[in-house]
Amino acid sequence: MATDPDRPGFLLPLLLLAGFRTLIDDLHAELARQGHPELRPLHGFVLQAVGADGTTATELGQRLGISKQAAGKTVDRLVALGYLERADDPRDARRKLVRMTPHGHDGLRRSAVIFDQLRQRWADTLGADRVAALEDDLRMVTPANWFRLDVPGWFGG
Q1: Do the beta carbons of residue 82 and residue 103 sit within 8 Å?
Q2: Looking at the domain assignment, is residue 30 inside a domain?
Q3: What CATH number does residue 70 fall under?
Q4: What Pfam families does its record include (predicted)?
Q5: Is residue 51 domain-shared with residue 88, that is, in the same domain?
Q6: Less Cβ crowding at N or C end of the chain, within 10 Å?
Q7: Has residue 32 got a pLDDT over 60?
Q8: 33 close to 114: Cβ distance less than 8 angstroms
Q9: How confident is the model at residue 127 (pLDDT cuts 50, 70, 90)?
Q10: pLDDT of 47 strictly over 80
């Protein structure tokens, strides 16, 4: 089977990554304008992994596919920035929970709104039907459990 020289196989993942990077860069530029200039792409994965009920640093590391030490360092940074807090676990006094602060919840809420706006921008440029078709096509070629929080660990090796 001959490959189209204008569409080599390696280009697809690069274009997908470029699209992802464009969305993430645009998200963070808008988050900065809305009062969250210190949030970085990794922080979004961390806040999602912490979740509404909180977690421990060990569990956070497992969810992200990184070491407990790396998770602890990231938690320290997000605590210093006011996005996370450490608290005693009411079910087990030996454990410390990591929880989102109101500032952390605000960052995630704003991210969701901004992603909707960015999707609309793509729809305005490409057409709503083409964006919907792109999403449908990607659903067909990706696993059902596509959302994995360990992307930072996966990218980091």
Answers
A1: yes
A2: no
A3: 1.10.10.10
A4: MarR_2
A5: yes
A6: N
A7: yes
A8: no
A9: very high
A10: yes
Q: What are phi and psi of 84, to 5 degrees?
A: -130, 160
The pLDDT score that the predictor gives to residue 92 is: 83
Domain that holds residue 115: 102-144
The Cα–Cα gap between 45 and 26 comes to: 16
Q: Are residues 83 and 107 in the same domain?
A: no
Q: In 3-state terms, what secondary structure has residue 84?
A: strand
Q: How far apart are the first and last CA of the chain?
A: 33
Q: 46: how many CB neighbours lie within 10 A of its CB?
A: 25
Q: Contact 54/99 with Cβ under 8 angstroms?
A: yes
The closest of 117, 99, 113, 115 to 47, measured between CA atoms, is 99
CA angle 126, 128, 129 (to 5 degrees): 95
Q: What is the torsion angle, in degrees rounded to the nearest 10, for the CA atoms of residue 15, residue 143, residue 66 and residue 96?
A: 130
pTM: predicted TM-score of the whole model, two decimal places: 0.85
Task: Determine phi and psi for 81, rounding to 5 degrees.
Answer: -85, -10
b/e burial code for range 69-86 (CB count within 10 A of at least 16 → b): ebbbebbebbeebebbbe
**DSSP structure string for 24-65:** HHHHHHHHHHTT-TT--HHHHHHHHHHTTT-B-HHHHHHHHT
Contacts of 11 (CB under 8 A, 6+ apart): none
